[in-house]
Amino acid sequence: MRLEEGSRWGAAGSATHSVDEPEILTETVPCPGCSGTKFETILKGGDHLTHLGGEFSLVRCTRCDLVLTNPRPVMESLG
């Protein structure tokens, strides 16, 4: 990956944020497939497309194995 001048990525590959970026509000939701509330985290990472701050988790429902983002951004935080 080639980093452009003024890139928002630090040397270690972590995102850097400016204080004027909007905060991404999140909500924790039950599984939309089975209404389960127990999850196993399978992946955590930042948004590499928009470079907005925050860390997002992909989790697997322990009841039905559905994978989803949880907590997820609230509608007001989506562009």
Radius of gyration: 15 Å
* Largest sheet: number of strands, sense, barrel closure: 3 strands, antiparallel
H/E topology pattern: EEEEE
Count of DSSP-assigned helices: 0
Could you give the order of strands across the largest sheet? 2-3-4
Mean pLDDT: 78
How would the global form be characterised?
elongated
Low-confidence stretches: 1-17
Number of strands: 5
The helical percent reads under 10%
Distance between the termini: 26 Å
The fraction of residues assigned to DSSP E strands is 25-35%
Give the helix/strand class: mainly beta
How would you sum up this structure, described in words?
The protein is mainly beta. Helices cover 0% and strands 25% of the residues. It is built from no helices and 5 strands. A hairpin with a 5-residue loop joins strand 3 (56-61) and strand 4. The protein is elongated, with a radius of gyration of 15 Å. The two termini are 26 Å apart. The model is unreliable at 1-17 (pLDDT under 50).
Protein topology:
Elements (H helix, E strand, L loop, with lengths): L25 E2 L11 E7 L10 E6 L5 E3 L2 E2 L6
Antiparallel strand pairs: 1-5, 2-3, 3-4
Features:
elongated, 5 strands, 79 residues, mainly beta, single chain, 25% strand, three-stranded antiparallel β-sheet, two-stranded antiparallel sheet
Brief rundown of the structure:
With 79 residues, the protein is mainly β. The protein has strands at residues 26-27, 39-45, 56-61, 67-69, 72-73.
